[in-house]
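Changelog note: in this version the structure field was regenerated for every chain. One regenerated record is shown below for reference.
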Amino acid sequence: MENDHSEKIGPACPACLAPATKFFCRKNNCDLYRCSSCRLVFVSPLPTETASIYEGDYFSGAEKGFGYVSYDEDKKTMAGIFNDYLQKLEQLNDGRPGHLLDVGAATGYFLGLAKPRGWTGAGLEISDYAAAKGRAKGLDVKTGILGPDLFPPGSFDVVSMWDVIEHVREPKKDLQTVAGLLHPGGALVINTPNGASWTARILGSRWHLLVPPEHLHYFNPRALSLLLQQSGFKVLSVHYPGKVFTLEYIFHTLARWQGLSIWQKILSWLKRHPSVGQWGLPINLRDNMLIYARKN
């Protein structure tokens, strides 16, 4: 919640490098700062570790508050949208499938959609639980985090980062690593919460996507474009698409966000009736941002 530390000065902005930032709020025992120039919001100091967040419960159950009731079931509602994204990536790759790296691949759902379209490649996932689920599907999902030695330089046509860059500790370093893994002219697609949306502005510290220490950086089009340019990319387009969420996911989010017992009761009922709980509902609050970029 907001408090009387509003004049507290924070560290330099990790996006535009402005030398000082202002305290924004304290939430979940984390201090968040906002850059007065590019408006990036970020956690500082960073937690000592975040890998423990992404254990089995994050992808199946979400009893600890973070993550998904069932990752694969929740993502099934996005299949049509993901296939549209794959078609766009094929257009950016000379009209054909290519070699794909999916960073933050989770259980390999996106890779599983890409494979029958003719894409080859790999996934990278911090959670060994989720990566093992992907490998059990016959997909090449490696456990680990981005590093320059994981794959040969210039070995990918496309890199996808679906809802992952807000989680990472050093987004600029990771984007520079991605640039090294792409061949010249290779494409990058990023989906992340949009901190410049009216939803984020109106709700402020109560925004439902403001969930440190799960999310560490809250981008907006300007801040992320600056970071991409510094990392060797040209931004091609910025979009604000909606998503399709299961009813289970929606009421899990409401229960976590507002803490009302009614949402938890509805969620419990939906878990007992998955034929209803897995219904998909399209939502667009314009607080979701999709950026396509190309390596220079």
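Spot check on this record: DSSP finds eleven helices and 14 strands in the chain. The longest strand covers residues 182-193.
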